[in-house]
Automatic annotation (TrEMBL):
Major site of localization recorded for this protein: membrane
Membrane topology classification: Multi-pass membrane protein
Keywords: Membrane, Transmembrane, Transmembrane helix
Pfam families named in the record: RDD
Localisation per UniProt entry: Membrane
Protein name in UniProt: RDD family protein
Amino acid sequence: MYEPTQHQHERGASVVTPEHVLLRFQTAGLGSRAAALMIDTVILFLVNLTVFIVIGLVIFGKDHDFFLETENLAIAIVILLAFAFNFGYFLLLEAFWRGQTIGKRMMSLRVMRDNGQPITFIAAAIRNLFRILDGLPMGYFLGAIISFFHPQDKRLGDLVAGTIVVAESSSTGPSRKKGQQQALPIMGEGRALDLDERQKGLITREDWQLLSSFIQRQASLSPEKRKELATQLAGLLAKKLGLPEEPVVNGDPLVFLQQLHANLQKDWKLGS
């Protein structure tokens, strides 16, 4: 279930997971997305320039007759390689690097599906194919206009692919979101939570993203809402880990989640 929300000067989205846990995300605006695209564009330009120079040296390094015979073939190969690399850069990184390119990672942005799940290969392919239309007539003008007026800052590719670009909070420093507090400190550290490798292997990427999102946003929740969500999430994860649910839920589910996050964060880090 996907439910859009809007708050004064910030736009965001709310996602209700299949476990009925509500997560709120701040969508990435034009400024941060443009900065991420600029970083990616510079990287692509430098790589393309290097490839063109190397290929040019190889071609022009041959005798004149050889160049004439292979000129058309060489140009076709260069164009094909350039298209494959420039399209593949965004497609493969977003599909297999958890919704991030180098530019998005530097700007703390991530692409995900509308339901809060990680982006799939098909969705990444669709949203990046539509870069051609979003770039019309030049400089991503069409994509920027659509994104500016859409309540969740979506461009055309996002609308078709069912994706959304969100801004991530840093778990090691102040949040980029104005007015948002840092995560609450871990409480009850005397109650150690030990997990073996088998149990750690039961935690999926979706589980970690759900847990990490809650930990990062817990400070912005009211005490009642924080306890409600912590109870739901603690019961879900305790069951998956094979731990007795009743002591976890009826004890202090927030402490359990905080210690579980601390236990797993060396193996799971957003964007790693």
